[in-house]
Amino acid sequence: MGKTSKKVIGIVGLLLGILWLFPFYLIVTNSFKTPKGIFASVLSLPHPSTGANYVNSFKALDFITSLTNSLIITICSVLLIILASSMAAYALQRNHSKLSSGLLMLFISAMLIPFQSVMIPLTANFGAVHFLNMWGLVIMYLGFDCSLSVFLYQGTLASIPIAMDESAELEGASRWQIFTKVIFPMLSPITVTVAILNIIAIWNDYLLPSLVLPQAQYTIPLQMFNFFGEYTKQWHLALAGITISIIPVILFYLFAQKWIIKGVTDGAVK
Amino acid sequence: MVKINLEHIYKRYQGNTDYSVSDFNLDIKDGEFIVFVGPSGCGKSTTLRMIAGLEDISKGDFKMDGKVMNKVSPKDRDIAMVFQNYALYPHMSVFDNMAFGLNIRKNDKEDTKKRVDNAAKILGLTPYLKRKPAALSGGQRQRVALGRAIVRDANLFLLDEPLSNLDAKLRVQMRTEIAQLHQRLGRNFIYVTHDQVEAMTMADRIVIMNDGMIQQVGTPSELYSKPANKFVAGFIGSPATNFFDVKLEDGRIVNDQGLNIAVPEGQMKVLKQKGYVGKEITFGIRPEDVHAEEVAIQAFPDAIIDAKIKVSELLGAESILYSNVGGTDFIAKVDSRDHHQPGDDVQMAFEMTKAHYFDKDTDETIL
Questions:
Q1: Which residues on chain B are in Cβ contact (under 8 Å) with A188?
Q2: What is the predicted ipTM?
Q3: B83 — contact with chain A (CB < 8 Å)?
Q4: A268 at the B interface (CB within 8 A)?
Q5: A41: three-class secondary structure by DSSP
Q6: I need a surface site. Which of A139, B143, B180, B359 has the fewest CB within 10 A?
């Protein structure tokens, strides 16, 4: 690659980086402005700067409660999705029967069903069994998000040689031990990917929780809606709220990213 | 120590009409090093996997110390196996990889450590015990795979082409190490390879397979000097045996491409007794039993051929000469002093006492 091409790629990369970081700039800078300051100039730096938005937003969101709700729902859903989809994918990938192939196709085709087409009967059925609460929501997420996760796990499992299972089997491991001690640790990179995809989707979801959750179990996105009335929009508080609410996701991403770049079978074979 | 019997073993995969392994019979003595050798797809790995319990046996009995093991699960067979691709657990250290089987079986931790340390010492892995497999070279990974088998102290060791991923130099080194390991442990080893040099150098006995069937079982020297059929004669030995389609006439083997060699009296007597006079047979002579030195030409005056060299390879002590003789591509392995260049006309002599004769229809050895 020539020097000029490298420079062009560098400049394009820089511009794209700025473009992607720009929403963060808007959110963070405006979260420190007064309502008047936001309307005066959205792009300028906060002047005067105020931290009061954070205090007020924290109170208005009932932040501790809504954060706890968001955390419980997200963590439980993601853990269940990881557990169920990794085991299901393992069983489907290692079992070469026609039934397995059929089930896998069923999982994959489930990804194509639009959520909106099933949300009314789903909430009606869950309501009928008095399950319109955060645990009902966790089960719904498990159902909706397993298909993509199974698909991702299945692809990775296909690259793990069957000799790994056979070797452990000969060493005396049971099927459960083979999965938990040998296979699942080798799935770490894809597990992190599955976790990130699902955490972002579930943490930010608005529609499904709005149909399912009672007010006492509102998550952060639902509470955030309180800032947007019919006639007034409290952008200064909403942006402060958004800044606080994305911190856990960013922290998780920073913690998890080292796992993503690791090769799945690094050093296992050959 | 364990006595192993494979009695009329058959394997047919679901959906296949043919058997992948047919009528496999073998008795393995205590502490024997057995090598299954044959071309790709001959059924050697399938047989090994049936012994390990990783494949079901369609028909026949696999016995260990007289007990039928067909339905016994792999973990209860007291078998350790080294896989072609090593199958090391990448998230575990070398120590944990080697200790895995013992930990699974809830072995005493002190004893596990002792056994792993001992195996590491044997294999020269002591400095690497804390490393992950990714931080090891190919040869070291292979040693870890061997170490994992050693610590188990199993009765039977199965090795499925364990050296095929190593470079040539390392392969020779590991070959010696595995042979020494076998002597040291005194256990039964079954080793699968498609490399006849590995088979010849390591085995107490070789099982040579083709098309799912045993072609011959014997010591390396038996297989080399007394091949049971044309396949064995062609597979064992490098370069491969030269074969000529010939007719036995007037005490000579002849063909219409100009080959005309006298058959020694003793051999002729046997061929006559077996009714092959006047019939078409296959004649085989190993490249190393062809000589180009003057002494040999004088010593075997009735077995001389004229060859025009097409390609020649000087290997140091030896020279490989490629030509066409009697209508057949022909290879001779001669002393490097008799090296010739392509285009040279060379007279060579067959050492007929070492010649082989095969039935043209059955490919079975006549003599």
A1: 91
A2: 0.84
A3: yes
A4: yes
A5: coil
A6: B180
